[in-house]
């Protein structure tokens, strides 16, 4: 069984993230989406628990998708969840350069037990990022091309709170 880990902050999860998950669902037996705690990011729109719940709701009809959270190193999360590889989405050369470096570190740290597989988001999502979605949202602009309707509702609730 091929089980893969898709880590990220997912604040919020975008259609670009979902495109990568959809590709992974079609390629692998099981996909573990890991909402990672990032202490370097001070300003989160959603708590980790809110992000986990939102993603669980989005994938409730996919029995081969599991959603977790973690503060551990990504490679350790992969090993502890019996994942053969880490899935990463690529949008640009900058993403590629970063992922090449992380792949080398992860291979060394895991004693070659965990590989990295890069997937390309479809062209309509290659420029979408959570930070850009939040910025556009803060300007009261339509973000329906970039995030699921359920995400927009949760973002509106946060804004109106």
List the helices and strands and how they pair.
Blueprint: E1 3-8, H1 15-27, E2 30-36, H2 48-58, E3 65-70, H3 74-80, E4 85-90, H4 93-109, E5 115-120, H5 130-138, H6 149-160
Parallel strand pairs: 1-2, 1-4, 2-3, 4-5
Relevant terms:
161 residues, alpha/beta, Rossmann fold, 5-stranded parallel sheet
What does this molecule look like?
The chain has a single domain (3-160), classed as Rossmann fold (3-Layer(aba) Sandwich), CATH 3.40.50.620. The chain has six helices and five strands. The chain has helices at residues 15-27, 48-58, 74-80, 93-109, 130-138, 149-160; strands at 3-8, 30-36, 65-70, 85-90, 115-120. The termini are far apart.
Nutshell version of this structure?
By secondary structure, this protein is an alpha/beta fold. The protein has helices spanning 15-27, 48-58, 74-80, 93-109, 130-138, 149-160, and strands at 3-8, 30-36, 65-70, 85-90, 115-120.
């Amino acid at each position: 069984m091929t089980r893969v880990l898709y880590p990220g902050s997912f604040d919020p999860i975008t259609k670009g993230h979902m495109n990568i998950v959809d590709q992974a669902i079609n390629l692998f037996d099981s996909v573990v989406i890991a909402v990672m705690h990032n202490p370097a990011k001070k300003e989160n729109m959603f708590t980790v628990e809110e992000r986990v719940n939102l993603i669980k709701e989005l994938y409730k009809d996919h029995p081969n998708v599991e959603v977790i959270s973690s503060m551990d190193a990504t490679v350790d999360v992969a090993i502890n969840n019996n994942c053969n590889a880490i899935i990463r989405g690529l949008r640009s050369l900058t993403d590629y350069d970063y992922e090449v470096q992380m792949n080398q570190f992860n291979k060394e740290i895991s004693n070659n037990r965990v590989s990295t597989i890069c997937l390309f988001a479809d062209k309509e999502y290659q420029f979408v990022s959570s930070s850009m979605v939040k910025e556009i949202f803060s300007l009261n602009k339509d973000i329906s091309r970039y995030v699921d309707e359920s995400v927009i509702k949760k973002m509106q609730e946060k804004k109106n709170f």
